[in-house]
Write a structure and sequence with these properties.
Family: Belongs to the bacterial ribosomal protein bL33 family.
Keywords: Chloroplast, Plastid, Ribonucleoprotein, Ribosomal protein
Radius of gyration: 14 Å
Structural class: mainly beta
Strand order of the largest sheet: 2-1-4-3
Helix content: under 10%
Oligomer: single chain
Shape: elongated
GO biological process, one term: translation
Protein name: Large ribosomal subunit protein bL33c
CATH topology: Rubrerythrin, domain 2
Order of helices and strands: EHEEE
CATH architecture: Single Sheet
Number of domains: 1
InterPro entries: Ribosomal_bL33 (IPR001705), Ribosomal_bL33_CS (IPR018264), Ribosomal_bL33_sf (IPR038584), Ribosomal_zn-bd (IPR011332)
Number of strands: 4
């Protein structure tokens, strides 16, 4: 079966400061959120400001590859 060309796609947002800093010593992971975006309205990579429980603050979460 061929891949569907849906307009809305599921994406994963990952904390950019956790990835850049290599995660704090006491934290156990990297913050990730799953959401959807409209491929026609937002063709570029999505970046949203979300709360990171590992950094304990609001940081920019960027779209990553699946």
């Amino acid at each position: 079966m061929a891949k569907s060309k849906d307009v809305r796609v599921t994406i994963i947002l990952e904390c950019t400061s956790c990835v850049r800093n290599g995660v704090n010593k006491e934290s156990t992971g990297i913050s990730r959120y799953i959401t959807q975006k409209n491929r026609h309205n937002t063709p570029s990579r999505l970046e949203l400001k979300k709360f990171c429980p590992y950094c304990y603050k609001h940081t920019i979460h960027g779209e990553i590859k699946k």
